[in-house]
Structure formats: C-alpha cells, structure tokens
Amino acid sequence: MAAEPDAGPLYRRVLALVDELRLAESAPPAERRPVLQFQSPAQLAQQLPLTLGEPLPDESALLQLCRQVASYSVRTSDFRFRNQLYGGVDQYGLAGALLTECLNTNQHTFEVAPAFILCEAAVLEHVRQLIGWQDGDGIFAAGGSMANQYGLALARYHRHPEVKARGLFGRRPMVVFTSEDAHYSILKAAHWHGYGHDNVLAVPTDECGRMRPDALEAAVTRALAEDREPLVVNATCGTTVLGAFDPLPEIADICHRHGLWLHVDACWGGSALLSRRWRPVLAGLERADSVAWNPHKMLGAPLQCSLFVTRHAGLLHRCNAAAATYLFQQDKFYDVSFDTGDKSVQCGRKVDGFKLWLMWKAHGDAGLERRVDATFAAAGYCADQVAQRPGFRPVLASPQCANVCFWYVPPSLRGQEETAAWWERLSQVAPRVKEAMVRRGSLMVGYQPLPHKQLVNFFRLVFTGVPEMGPAEVDYMLDEIDSLGRDL
C-alpha cells in the first residue's frame, strides 16, 4: 500500500489514490488484487460508516473513507471484469472526464460551455458521416436507454407533431415493433411515452437471435387488421445477450413500404462502424431514421458516454423545445443555434461529448479501428477455445459481436443422456460457478437463460477494447471457469 500523501487538498490526495488503483490494474494476474471483495449488503453496511449527520474529524479520515469505498468496489478496468457490456477506461477519456468534472459546467448553452458545445457538434457530425448521412442532428444522452427514448419520441413527433400540444387522447394505439431479444429499455420507453407495453410487439428472432423480416411483416399486417397504427421499428445491432445484428436492409424495406420510422439500437454493436473489416455487419444503417450508440461500451470511454443521431435536421429541436426564456433568449449577442440544450429532455446535462472527442483526437480513426478489431479478435479466439475445450459447449456456432455464449458441462454431467432433468441440472452450474468466482474475487462473468428459446442458464463472456486482451487473458478466464466448475 502506498504511503498516504500528508499535504495538499483532498482532491489531490484522491488523485494519488487514482494513480495507485490504475497501476494495480496493470500488474500480472498472479499479483493483482481480487477483482472485487464481495460482501453481502448487510455485511457491507456494517463495514462502511453510512450514517450522516456529524462531520468526520479531518481530511485524512475522508481519504481513508475513499480508500475503504474503493477497496469494496468492483475493479471494472481489470480484464477479469467481463460481467457487463462495458469494462476498462481509456486513459485519454479519463483525462477528459477529470477535466470536465473540474470545470463543472452544463451542456445547454454556448455561453456556459463554449468549447464543449463545439466538441459535441464535431463528434456528432463525424459519426453521421461514418453512417453515410450528409445532414442531420444529434445529442449526447444520459445512457443508451435514454438515447432509445429519443428515437421513439422523434418517431411520434415526425408522424404526429400535433401530439406535442394536444396529447394522445382519442387516438388509435400506436405500435412499436422490436425483436424478442431487444433491450428492455424499449418497454420502459413505451410506458413513458404513453404507447403502453401492450403496444410493443415482440418480433420473433431466428436461431442466431436476429429479427425475422417475415415475422416483422406479419406483425405489421396484424396491427393494421386490429386497427392499431404501426409507428416505429426498433432494430438492434448487437443484442445484449447473443450479440445479434438484425438484418437492416430487409427491415428498412418493410419500413419504407409501410411508412414506419426505423430506429436502430446500436448501443453495443455500433463501434463496428469504426472498422473497415467489421462495418459490413451494419449494412443498411444509413437507411435508418435514427441511431443510438454507446462508446462507453466497446471503446472504453468513461461512463456515461452515449449518443443519439438522426438524419432529420432540425427535428430534435422542434420535438423537444420548450423555449425557456431564462436560458434560450433569441436576442443574445452570438449565434443562438449553438444553444443546443433545448433539443434535450434534460436541463442539467453532463458534457459527455468531450471525453469521446479527446479520445478520438488521441487515437484517430485508425487507432479506434485497431481497438475494435482487437476486441473482435479476442472474442474470436475465445469462441475457438470454447469449441475445442472439454466441457465447454457454445450456444452459437460463432459470435456475431464480442459476446461469447457457452455452457460449462462439469465432468459429472458429461456423457449422459440429455433429458429435461439433465438440462435442469446444467442450469444450476453457471449460477454456482458465478458465486464461486465472485466470492474468490478471481473473475466476473455474467450468465442468463433465454426462456423464449428454451435455453437454460449459460455464460455470456463479453469483450471490450480496454484493456486489450490476448490469448493469455482469455485462457485465464476459461481455465478459471473450468477450475471452479470441475467438481460440481
């Protein structure tokens, strides 16, 4: 443990702690601290002085409290954290995040965030160009779920701008179509926007988890027959569990035929746009009306870093503007088109675009492309190992994104008839191995079932670009799962 700095304000001493934590993450696996020190909620509440009221005696006590919180937090920048669709943080993105926290401003008007407004605009324009749009608009949002909310809001406003003033009263139900493997944020958005869960139609997917165009066409026909109004299709590029990419060209054809808004949730798989090798999985993206993407996932931008772009210029402002005169005065002395806050549903908004802008300036297109290629390469190596190792069984023949899904079959279940009872026993393996790895602090890998595909609990090992992983790190993770599950 490093010696405590004995001088300077608390924030400097915390920065020294940050340096210490970052160095620990680069140590060889055998020398690393556990990826977490698990405590139950009740146990952790006993360890932390949670009650408020009286202040601590001095800043040294506050620093010790920061150390304590860090010691019980998950080390998401350690390569062993494979639990979610994020992990690791880019050093330049971290520098950008530290600067924005220090400057502590709000991304709503040019007068309070002049440089940040321009940086956000530059990133959004570059992303639109990568998609293939010559015009359009965009905004950074408070996470991918909120970015998807923007898509549904614009879809309705584009079709029915009068709803902004008059509301939904007396209208036919508007229908949202999304795949049965889509992110749950679409259901939440349907509730918030007044569509209702019953008007979110889950479209069946194929064996790889991709939306079936024939099933989408049938769902649209059924909604029309029921006197409901088909409004928007949410396609997914990189589903949360299987990493599936919906077939955008076929879906876009259906949307064009029926006059539907096409929103693409590319929060996970959108980073493939940066790679010439992997960009074909996003074929047809340029035909979308709007796209959501989370660079805090595969690219390692600091959380949160989510953006929403649309090819319809001016629509975001018309849809969301409330024209507050204490913020968005039209007689200011500069070009008020740079007061972008009225496009947002938030008033207070973090200057998240700067983190990504600084990363992009540091790495360039080529550097980010290498990061995406390395991520897919690590996932490909892992999938090959899963297919070869005894006891490992892939859920899919090959990953579409950076998700590798598999069962671990312990020796006690190998070579047996795979009856319903056998699958029930196998479904208990992943939760027990997960508990063992978390209690040991050696690894964090997620698991889940897919009941609609009759798939019992399996592991979902996901790869991100930071930290970059090679064969040694992948082998460690699979060896650890084998070691923890072998005696079950």
Question: Could you walk me through the main structural features you see in this protein, from its secondary elements to its overall organization?
Answer:
This protein is an alpha/beta fold. It has 15 helices and twelve strands. The strands form two sheets. It has a seven-stranded mixed sheet with strand order 2-8-7-6-5-3-4, sandwiched between helices. Helix 4 runs antiparallel to helix 12. The longest helix has 36 residues. The chain starts with 9 loop residues before the first helix and ends with a helix. The mean pLDDT is 94.
Concise account of the structure shown:
With 488 residues, the protein is an alpha/beta fold. It contains 15 helices and 12 strands. α6 packs across α8, α9 runs parallel beside α10 and α14 (429-440) crosses α15 (471-485).
SSE layout and pairings?
Blueprint: H1 10-25, H2 41-47, H3 59-71, E1 81-82, H4 91-103, H5 114-131, E2 137-141, H6 144-159, H7 163-166, E3 174-179, H8 185-192, E4 200-203, H9 213-225, E5 229-236, H10 248-258, E6 261-265, E7 290-293, E8 306-310, H11 315-320, H12 353-388, E9 392-394, E10 403-408, H13 420-427, H14 429-440, E11 444-450, E12 455-462, H15 471-485
Parallel strand pairs: 1-11, 3-4, 3-5, 5-6, 6-7
Antiparallel strand pairs: 2-8, 7-8, 9-10, 10-12, 11-12
Order of helices and strands: HHHEHHEHHEHEHEHEEEHHEEHHEEH
The helix tally amounts to 15
* Large-scale geometry: globular
Quaternary: single chain
Mean pLDDT: 94
CATH class of the largest domain: Alpha Beta
Structural class by secondary-structure content:
alpha/beta
What is the annotated CATH architecture of the largest domain? Answer: 3-Layer(aba) Sandwich
Strand content: 5-15%
Largest sheet: 7 strands, mixed
CATH homologous group name of the largest domain: Type I PLP-dependent aspartate aminotransferase-like (Major domain)
The CATH topology of the largest domain is Aspartate Aminotransferase, domain 2
- Sequence stretches where pLDDT stays below 50 over 5 or more residues: none
Strand tally: 12
Number of domains: 3
